[in-house]
From TrEMBL:
Residues 3-121 form the Response regulatory domain. It comes from Flectobacillus roseus. PANTHER family: HYBRID SIGNAL TRANSDUCTION HISTIDINE KINASE J. This is Response regulator. Pfam families: Response_reg. Keywords: Phosphoprotein, Two-component regulatory system. InterPro entries: CheY-like_superfamily (IPR011006), Sig_transdc_resp-reg_receiver (IPR001789). The modification 4-aspartylphosphate is found at residue 52.
Length: 123
């Protein structure tokens, strides 16, 4: 079973994404900010990260850069999807340069969420 780590400070979005992905047989772990993502990655391995861009403590952009800079090459190369409510503030190039593989705009299109997670974890 593929393990997904969702970092999202909105419980509503976190819970919806969790339900939808669990229905697709993914194991979901949830945290509220980028620092908690890094802490969780130290303890266990995940197959993909879903990072909200606007989070307290450490936002998604800084978190993606930190993950890409990890010493463990396997962890540093994990697929990462940006979740953003302010897609206009960033271009796809901004996300790519921060280390994201893809992005999803809010309100989330759950079909797109499932399709992207599957595409990035079926390697």
């Amino acid at each position: 079973m593929k393990k997904v780590l969702i970092a999202e400070d909105s419980s509503v979005i976190q819970n919806l994404a969790k339900k939808i992905l669990e229905f697709q047989n993914f194991e979901i772990h949830s945290v509220k900010n980028g620092q908690q993502v890094l802490d969780a990655m130290e303890k266990e391995d995940f197959d993909i990260l879903l990072l909200d861009i606007n989070m307290p403590v450490m936002d998604g952009m800084d978190c993606a850069r930190a993950v890409r800079g990890l010493a463990d090459a396997e962890k540093a190369n994990i697929p990462i999807i940006a979740i953003t409510g302010n897609a206009r503030n960033y271009t796809m190039d901004d996300f790519k340069s921060a280390g994201f593989n893809d992005m999803l705009a809010k309100p989330l299109n759950f079909d797109a969420l499932v399709a992207q997670v599957k595409a990035l974890t079926e390697k």
